[in-house]
């Protein structure tokens, strides 16, 4: 069985380190035999999560589109920046909206059900955005997503990539290799993907 993995960054800023980290993850997952889909949260613009808005207008169409992407894959990998030692608002908003999906067309639909995820981070600081992953891990676990233990945090990110977007540091390359391999193995075991 070919494992299908969804990859996206928690930022849509031009030149974002998290986008470069997602690129590295995408390449490594593909090298290890996964079928990788890469998306940008910028392609799914959403209002700020608001239950009054949800009650008045329902769940936005882009939430269902993102939810279907998650449901159609065996697992996903998020490469996130760190904002004030926590989750960037763009990413938190998307996760929260998708968690509001409970049914579609009168049938139960839970995009996160049975999913496994890997977390990566990046920043120009010494910790590589790792402090934000503590909160991201907690939020996703609350959504019933299983998070693999290995993670990859890219410190001093402005100097971490060569001109081809590869990690300069061998330890970082090995870390991403471990993250990708663990995610593929666990996703294969837990697969509940829904074809769309």
TrEMBL record:
InterPro entries in the cross-refs: Flavoprotein-like_sf, FMN_Rdtase-like_dom, NAD(P)H-dep_reductase
Taxonomy, superkingdom: Bacteria
The organism of origin for this protein: Pseudaminobacter soli (ex Li et al. 2025)
Domain NADPH-dependent FMN reductase-like: 4-157
A GO cellular component annotation in the UniProt record: cytosol
Pfam families, per database record: FMN_red
Protein's recorded name: FMN reductase
MF-aspect GO terms: FMN binding; oxidoreductase activity
Matching Gene3D superfamilies: 3.40.50.360
């Amino acid at each position: 069985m070919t494992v299908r993995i969804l990859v996206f960054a928690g930022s849509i800023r031009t030149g974002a380190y998290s986008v470069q980290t997602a690129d590295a993850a995408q390449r490594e997952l593909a090298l290890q035999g996964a079928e990788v889909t890469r998306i940008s949260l910028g392609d799914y613009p959403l209002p700020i999560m608001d239950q009054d808005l949800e009650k008045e207008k329902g769940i936005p169409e882009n939430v269902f589109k993102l939810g279907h992407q998650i449901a159609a894959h065996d697992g996903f990998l998020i490469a996130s920046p760190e904002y004030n030692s926590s989750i960037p608002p763009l990413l938190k908003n998307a996760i929260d909206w998708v968690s509001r999906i409970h049914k579609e067309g009168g049938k139960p639909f839970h995009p996160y059900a049975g999913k496994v995820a890997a977390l990566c981070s990046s920043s120009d600081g010494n910790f590589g955005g790792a402090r934000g992953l503590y909160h991201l891990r907690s939020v996703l676990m609350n959504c019933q997503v299983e998070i693999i233990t290995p993670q990859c945090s890219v410190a001093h990110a402005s100097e971490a990539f060569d001109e081809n977007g590869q990690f300069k540091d061998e330890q970082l390359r090995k870390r991403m290799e471990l993250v990708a391999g663990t995610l593929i193995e666990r996703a294969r075991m837990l697969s509940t993907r829904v074809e769309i």
